[in-house]
Specification:
CATH superfamily of one domain: lambda repressor-like DNA-binding domains
Shape: globular
CATH architecture of one domain: Orthogonal Bundle
Helix content: over 70%
Strand order of the largest sheet: 1-2
Strand content: under 5%
Order of helices and strands: HHHHHHHHHHHHHHHHHHHHHHHHEE
Number of helices: 24
Largest sheet: 2 strands, antiparallel
Number of strands: 2
Radius of gyration: 28 Å
Distance between the termini: 58 Å
Length: 496
Amino acid sequence: MRLKDLPDLSIVLTFLRLGQGWGQTQLAEAAGLSPRVLNDLERGWRTLTRPKLEQLIAFMGLPPAAIDETLETLARNRAMARAPHLAAGQASEAQIRVEAIAAQVGKLARGFTRSTLTLLTVEGEALKARQHAEELWNRLKRRAPAERRKLVERGLEFRTWALCERVARESITAAPNQPQQALELAELALLIAELLPGEALLRTRLQGYAWAHVGNGRHVCNDLPGADEAIARARKLWEAGAAGDPGCLNQAWLPGLEASLLRSQRRFPEALKRIEEALTLDQTGELKGEILLTKARIHQTLGDPIASAAALSEAAPLIDPSRQSRNAFGLRFNLLVDLCSLQEFAEAESKLSEVQMLAERLGGVLDLNRSVWLGGKVATGLGRLAEARSAFEQVRRTFVDHGLAFDYALVSLELCLILLEQGLTREVSVIAEEMLTIFRAQKVEQEALAALRVFCDAAKREAATVELTRRVVKFLYRAQHDPELRFEPGNGAEAR
């Protein structure tokens, strides 16, 4: 059997047995098997099931989790076996160790032992490359952007695929709150890719990967034409370098980032198609949670809280709050927004404390503000109007101070709903005039401005109704991501 055809569970069994210092005969005797049967299981000549593997490693004192950890490393780094790390004729210390171990076994088993250990050692070397990239990033992150670029331009040690991957990942992390930094980091990742030594095809593939992140950086900086250009270049380079791909980069990044851009471009069917492509390509499941978050945002933009909540619920077990606080907050916040849209206020309240805890952990003013806003929405739905009014009044000014006109308008309209139910129409008129002034000053899109003007005119006549206010709220929720959406005041329908 060729190495590439060897079942993963067979590789895991060999890896764990050797790692624990057990011989085949020793393990076979402990498990009540013949050494030949165990050898056949490791060589893939007999089918090794997950329950059987768990039983075998239990004799060595290992838990089932050891299988999952080994499989994760195997899936993430397997194809690094073809990555050009060393010059021709040059052997790494790991390769020398492989030959030394292989020389100690019998002639018949030598080829299998050498090939298996080589694969597993390559896995370790890829992990080592990522660990080294983490050390390099720790050196770079303390520097100003211009200094980082100089270090990459002058130092060969910074020109690695793993550092490009690490810097690109940092760009993704920065995107929600620091868009300019996200773009700077993506451009740094691109520089590393362009300077990568070795095979031209691998360099081309890595440039495609980096350009996808440049596209995302431009996207969050609201440069949609520039983002579109970057994504197109990314796809061209990514495909051109496919033959030289060692498999070290997750192929789901490009369609995942492209889906996010297509959402902002209102190309929703294409965006959902890219989402499905990304989910298919993410063979290790590393990015599945984030891809599902993007899918949920697309459905939110389409005004479909049921589909959005379904995607968020699927993503929830894949997002670890201890390691991914930002994604965990976004997931849980948006899930509660969907629950409120679906009138599931009691369920939303049961999950509210977790959102507030994550906001406190992140420590950002806007995150904390949004968690208070969310508490106000839940309180409104549960009929605690005094509590809701206090929450809405608290967060309004923070949003306008940060130039978030849509968020300011939405919370103001939700405050107006409470005031209208309390018969306070004069206060509604004052708030409506404030919102209109802010929308004009911040040059908000014409359709959103028109919707707010309809509400403002009704408020001035003290004719604003709860039904009209709710329609404007619903419209603005969608219009902030879909500027060409039209508001039809006559029948309440919004059309494209």
